[in-house]
Design brief:
Helix content: 40-55%
Oligomer: single chain
Shape: globular
Radius of gyration: 17 Å
Strand order of the largest sheet: 2-3-1-4
Length: 153
Amino acid sequence: MGCITLDLTSLQEINEKEGHEGGDLAIRSFSDILLAAGEPLMKAGGNAAAKDDVQHRGCFIGRNGGNKFLVIIRSCTGQKLENYLKSVQQQAEELNKTRTVRLTYTAGSALAAGSGAASLTALVALSDHLAMQSQEQNQEQIQGQDQELLQES
């Protein structure tokens, strides 16, 4: 089993610049991206009906409150996680070509095998922790770039 936690990091900026209607649209757009990226995973064992049967899907994709989203993939491999995240990235880049305020996000992913996570709850907590680390690293990079720009001025 694999888990991905995604944080829509630009939601606050979108709400400030485009209002809550813009924020709601951003959430819906990001949700659509996550669902489209998961389309190949939705079918369990090639069963076309599984897409509509929650108990037999190959994955679960949902909003976990606020700006957080959760993806849980059955029979997961590192390659499936990587492919999913690449698809999300490509679709977000495409959408951002048409947006005033870019959709930005961080993601953390974890596989149950070898992670030491003894339960689904522990796996979700691990992927959430990794998403927060990713966000902190992005903030440090941005702050470092800002410092470089100030020094160049």
